Structures are given as structure tokens and as C-alpha cells.
């Protein structure tokens, strides 16, 4: 895709720094999932981090304005939560698959929507272009 200034809106490339951030957050998410069983870190911090995780994974392969990527990841997160509201795991017949139930999620929560929004806002401010600061 191109914008009116003939600049590419999206291009593919591999960004090692973003991929390393993704891997680090993925390890943290695994640690949270396997070893943390509390009422704050696992349900809330994990949901905030998952948005950042997805952002950096996509950023590892796609070059675009960071605001576009933040919005796309946030909308994807909202869509996933809405799919949980519709009971997509049951519709797809995956209710007995623990891994897929964990990845997709099975319970809608406004708290999750709030956490996803916080994660997107953090991505926006952490990764905004240097000349804006």
C-alpha cells in the first residue's frame, strides 16, 4: 500500500531488536503462566503484556507507522475478547483443548479490554518516534 506521498505504508523486513523484545516478553509470559498464581500479575499484567508481545512480534516483520501498528494490535485484541464473548472456543469445538482454550481465552471480561488498552497505550508511548518527544 502507498500513501499520497508515494511512501510505502507497510513494508516487510526483519528487525532483530523488536524480535528480541518479543522473545523476552514471551519468556516472561511463560513464567507468569506456569509459576504465578495470584490475583494481579497473572490476570492483569499478563493481559497488558500480551498486547505488547503481539506488537513487538508484528513489528519484527512489518515496517509501518507505529500508530497504525498500535491500533491494529489493539483492534485485534478487542476482536479476540469479543470472540470470547461469543464463546468461539465452543463454536470451534476446542473446549477440551487446554492449549487453545488458554491462547484464545474462553471468558469475556471488561477488565481484559481495559488491560489491552493499557498495553496499547504503553506501546504507543514506549515506541513512539524520537522526534515527537
Helices and strands, with pairings:
Elements: E1 11-12, H1 16-35, H2 41-59, E2 62-63, H3 66-85, H4 88-91, H5 98-104, H6 110-126
Antiparallel strand pairs: 1-2
What does this protein structure show overall?
- This protein has 133 residues and is mostly helical.
- The chain has one domain (14-132).
- It is built from 6 helices and 2 strands.
- The protein has helices spanning 16-35, 41-59, 66-85, 88-91, 98-104, 110-126, and strands at residues 11-12, 62-63.
- Strands 1-2 form a two-stranded antiparallel sheet.
- Helix 1 runs antiparallel to helix 2 (41-59), helix 2 (41-59) crosses helix 3 (66-85) and helix 3 runs antiparallel to helix 6.
- The longest helix has 20 residues, at 16-35.
- 17% of the residues are buried.
- The model has no long low-confidence stretch (mean pLDDT 90).
Amino acid at each position: 500500500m502507498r500513501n499520497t506521498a508515494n511512501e510505502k505504508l507497510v513494508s516487510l523486513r526483519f528487525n532483530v531488536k523488536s524480535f528480541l523484545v518479543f522473545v523476552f516478553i514471551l519468556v516472561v509470559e511463560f513464567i507468569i503462566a506456569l509459576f504465578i498464581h495470584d490475583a494481579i500479575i497473572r490476570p492483569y499484567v499478563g493481559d497488558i503484556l500480551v498486547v505488547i508481545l503481539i506488537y513487538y512480534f508484528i513489528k519484527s516483520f512489518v515496517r509501518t507507522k507505529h500508530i497504525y501498528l498500535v491500533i491494529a494490535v489493539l483492534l485485534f485484541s478487542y476482536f479476540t475478547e469479543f470472540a470470547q464473548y461469543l464463546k468461539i472456543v465452543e463454536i470451534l469445538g476446542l473446549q477440551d483443548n487446554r492449549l487453545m482454550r488458554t491462547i484464545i481465552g474462553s471468558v469475556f471480561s471488561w477488565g481484559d479490554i481495559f488491560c489491552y488498552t493499557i498495553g496499547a497505550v504503553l506501546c504507543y508511548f514506549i515506541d513512539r518516534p524520537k522526534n515527537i518527544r
